[in-house]
Design a protein that fits this description.
The chain has 4 helices and no strands. It has helices at residues 3-16, 19-40, 44-52, 58-78.
Length: 79
């Protein structure tokens, strides 16, 4: 396949599946947020898992939610 054929195939796929781009953006955004938080909290294992596991953002959303509620609970205990 040459470059033109590849470009035509990509355009045809997007026309047939317009929500694919939205799903891709959704997954990438959550992955970047989760990877940032994992690095910030020195969670090396989660960083590695999130780097190699693709789940349309589900693992990332769960991880970010866990951190959010954990931090929120800790703040309430300190008060």
């Amino acid at each position: 396949m040459n470059t033109q054929e590849i470009n035509n195939a990509i355009i045809a796929y997007i026309k047939l599946h317009p929500y694919a781009i939205l799903f891709l953006i959704w997954a990438v955004v959550w992955k970047l947020i989760a990877l940032w938080k994992a690095a910030k909290h020195d969670h090396l294992v989660m960083f590695i898992v999130l780097t190699f596991v693709n789940t349309l953002g589900l693992a990332e959303i769960i991880y970010v939610g866990y951190l959010y509620f954990r931090d929120r609970k800790n703040k309430e205990v300190v008060k």
